[in-house]
Every structure is written in structure tokens, then in C-alpha cells.
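Two proteins, back to back. First:
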Amino acid sequence: MPKAKKNRTPSPNHYTYPQSVTLKNKYGIQDYTSLLEKCAHDTTKEMINLLSWEGRTNENGLALSSAFAKRKIKHPKEHAC
């Protein structure tokens, strides 16, 4: 069985694109400014989606936001960028 490599210092190389400070992301966007714009757009879109859930109820008559809070689970559309 091979020995584990000993890292002397932590390296961000596995988390960023080569020769970049941009974190690896689900979009594959390597340009930092483009990634910020895409994340801002997605965040705004999801905020609008959450507002559209306001006032809706599930089959038991519970407000959807209350149902998610009681079960301590994330909203199905919730994600971080």
C-alpha cells in the first residue's frame, strides 16, 4: 500500500483554476468578474423564486415556509454560489 504524501504547507491549487484566483465552480467559469456576475444573477433569480412561494400552502394546509422550517430542511431551490 503506498504511503500518503506529506504536505509541508497547505495549497489552494486544488481549489482554484490554474494561474488564477478564481475558485473552481459548477459553471466552469474561470474569469473572476464573469463568475461574480453569474452568481449575482442566480442569487437575484432565486430571491424572486422564494418571494413567489410566499403565501402558498402544502397539502396539509401549512404554509410552505413554515413546513420547511419545522422539518429543518433546506428549501428545494436553496443553494450557494
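And the second protein:
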Amino acid sequence: MTPAGDKEKRPIQEDAQQEDDSKSPQLPNNTGSIFPPQPQHSPSLCTGRNFKYYKDDQLSSLTFTDRNEGILTQAKSKFAEYADQFKKTFVEFKQANVDHVHTLTKEDSNGRRHQQQFDTVVDTFGLCSCNDPEQALISLADACKPSEKSRILLLEHGRSHYEWLNRILDTNVDKHVRRWGCWWNRDLMELFEREKVKEKLEIVKVYRWHLGTTCYIVAKPKSSSSSSS
């Protein structure tokens, strides 16, 4: 039990945030209904534990990136287990930092290279380990196509609703960073209040679990929502 006054005051966007500590975090299986088969990008790939959650009939192409070449090599090997699942999908692996995914390029039919953009960008537990999470969010926004349907799906972890838990995270963060390279006490929602991020992104929905430390955030590029705001 914790005192009621120990719960953080936090801004709630009308019709934007929902919180439910009673359920485990699961990405809703509705991407296909929002987006017919279209290009998707997954930065901070890690070793490919999420491959099974991607549906071939919801994708036209799938680009996996990670900053670590060794991790990419492991992920490619693991992907062999799922190759039959993606026979109709163009799949590629590229080395890139999550805060520079907007610099990815691809070659067109005429041999010219141009920026590679996506209908959906999915990041799972990447903001806790990158050097500049603010720039990462901006980069994810810039990697999206300029469309009302473009979305950024973030499954992340960071600070809690509760100060007693935040004190534990803060006290042990240095040890945790040294062991795992993860800043587990980052204030994820505060990132969306920063001016440079607010210029680029708008939150659509937020779900939080595990005393607020785990977040599933659906966002969209600001340029695609200006007409509806």
C-alpha cells in the first residue's frame, strides 16, 4: 500500500491516455485494419524476439534496424525460422541508430537514392538505451510518410506514477546502466512535452502497466494531424 498523495500528478490529454494496470501489455492486432499492406519499420531490433508478432498480410515491406552489427547478424539468423511467414513481404535488415532512422535511403528504379519513409514505425524498448531519446522521437517522426494514416507505435519502459518506485529507479540507475546500457528511469511522457517533439508528434493513445513503468504509446506525425487539430 502507498499513500494516495505519493502518486504523481501527470497531465492527461482528453481522449488520448488510457491506463490499466490490470492487463499485460499487448500490441493490439488492428494494424491491418488501419493500414492495408504497407511498408513498416522496426528500429532497435535487438535479436528478433518480435518477429512472430508481424503479420505478412498486413505488410508490403518490413525494414529492421539496429545500431549493433552483431545484433543484426543474430537477428538475421533467427529470421530464418520465420522466412516462410513472410514469403509475400520484402524484408531487409539495416544498421542504423534509432535517433538517425530518418537518414535511411533506398534506391528507385532509376538508380537514384532518396529518403526511405514508412507508414508505420515500431520501436520496442529502444528509448531507454539510446543516447538522445528526444532526437530519436524526432527521427521516428521524420521517418514516417506524410500521411494522416502514418503511425508510430512505441512499447517502452521508464518512470512510474509513484515517487517511491521512482526513488528506487533513480538510486540504482548507474548500476543498471553499467550492466544493461539502459536508463530505466527516463520520463517518457515528459519527452512528448518538449517543444521540438511537440512540433513533430501528437499522441493518439497511451496505455500504461506495471505501476506506470511500461508504456504503449500510439503517436502520429504532427504534419499529418494539423487538419484535424
